[in-house]
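User: Could you write out the 3D structure of this protein bound to 1,3-dihydroxyacetonephosphate? I've included everything you need below.
Assistant: Certainly. Input first, then the structure.
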Amino acid sequence: MSDELNDIALAMVKPGQGILAADESTGTIKKRFDQIGLANEEENRRAYRELLFTADDAMNNYISGVILFDETLRQSTKDGRRFADVISAAGAVPGIKVDKGAKAHAAFPGEKVTEGLDGLRERLQEYHSLGARFAKWRAVIDIADGLPTTGSIAADAHALARYAALCQENGIVPIVEPEVIMDGPNSGHDIQRCYDVTELTLNMVFDELFAQRVSLPGMILKPNMIVPGLNGPQVPAAEIAEMTVACLKATVPPAVPGIAFLSGGQTEEQATENLSLMNAMGGLPWALTFSYGRALQQAALKAWGGKPENVAAGQAAFTHRAKMNGMAASGTWSAANEKMAA
Ligand code: 13P
């Protein structure tokens, strides 16, 4: 086992902190900017990321890592400081999304497989030279009638393991992200169905990680929580917390140093509450924290609205959310904390 990879992984899940997923591809950030009526231009993307990464209170105290997109890793603040350096100076680890997206899986109607292995070694080497010390690869597993199939999960599990091994070969900690989708086109399933599909997926992913000789102490898992589909029968937060911890205990070896959840379409407060309840349970063999995109950024994006005069308001909203999730990472959040001044 490489101590260096394990050190990076532990730094990514420091107590009371978590990861900001700011790796929206150019296409995905367009959907976010559309909500505030902002043009999807490079300077707007740069300005928005500068707002997030220079929110000092949030970055210094609650954010242990930031996932970037290729374009963002190459960008700088208005006054010329490289984003990767700004993030490192705040004590957080810069990371990079390296998959090339989920594409239709040939011969598996309605299912996707994530692409991006070709040329990955060379891309990782360049990203390392640009300051990235961890990477992310996301597999997408949709729940629908008769789906997912084991054939499609197996293809994604194999790609995740090949990606993870390549990362470790190049001094980069892989975030392994198999996302069972809660808000797909058919999201009427119940929480038990999410449990069953996630359990199967995680078992298949860890089988492949073992087969491809991935070092578990040098990786981070980024799973979905066990939740009902968006249009399925809803359940209390305590049930989500209990079922999620049960599923992870049944599938994730304790040698994995940290688990950082995606938010996946939960509201900001739901994502915070669920995480806090899990940590409050105690007795977990891994650090359990957040790696949220939407659930960390939604309020900040709205408060900013693309206007230079609102940068401070956007940063205050981001800082509040980061702080709430920092508390959730220690299991100490309660709804009353939401009223605290940002
Ligand atoms: P969400 O928290 O918005 O799901 O995004 C996290 C992420 O990085 C998905 O790959």
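The chain has one domain: 2-339.
User: Perfect, thank you.
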